[in-house]
Design brief:
Layout: H1 12-25, E1 54-59, H2 66-76, E2 80-86, E3 99-103, H3 108-115, E4 121-125, E5 133-137, E6 155-160, H4 167-177, E7 181-187, E8 199-203, H5 208-215, E9 222-225, E10 233-237
Parallel strand pairs: 1-2, 1-5, 3-4, 6-7, 6-10, 8-9
Antiparallel strand pairs: 3-5, 8-10
Length: about 260
Amino acid sequence: MRTRGRLALLTTAGLMAGSMVLAGCGDQEAAPAKKPVCTTTPTPTVAIPASYIHVNVLNASDTQGLAGQVGTALSWRGFQVISTASDPQDDNRPTPTYAEIRYGAGGYQMALTLATQVEHATLYDDSRTNPSIDLVLGPSFQLAALPPPAAKSVTVNVYNTTARPGLATTVGKELRARGFKTDRVGNDPLGSFNPELIAIVRYGAKGEPAARRVALSVEGAKLVLDGRTDSSVDLVLDYRFSGLVPAAQATAPPVPKPSRTCS
């Protein structure tokens, strides 16, 4: 049996938390063979909180900084990220096209839980004896999309770039009637001028799901990622803006379940 020869060292607290989870998993009878395990959809049968799952994020792609980006995103999703690094590649196992999740004894349900956050992941039992999980990122890696949060969980700044006085105030009231929270309302502090656009939704990486929720209310809005570190969203009203879509139409399509493939 080939293994990576690399077992993560958890903190004492992390080991205790992981051990508590393992004691309650009861998945030994379902332990898979020690080879890649592939099914249509990840379906953990034991509910394990993300905060109990300790993950090493390893980059096997050529995209610099990908492990750090994914590690940050997983932390926002509640997982305990132990480390981010390049994949050591110290055996002859092929690089995954999308992602590989490596785990050891008692870690099958935790690996399945992590797989719900990743598109097209394969699972691999590498016989480790600690409760850590490795997420190996391939060149086509992609996190599964999160559904947009409810409007009541989204804080949006509403900014006007047009010559129409009071536009931001009016739209802010309409958004509050739909359940959104508004913070700053007025002229765009960046002084943007976009005569060919309807609206811009500005957001940081942490606020991507919230940005998609805001964009559902403005047909034709352009999403723009900026460097903010919180989950706030700016709705910038541009010259072609004519109004919000009807509330009944501002609904999100179902988010497809992530799948796993052997490739």
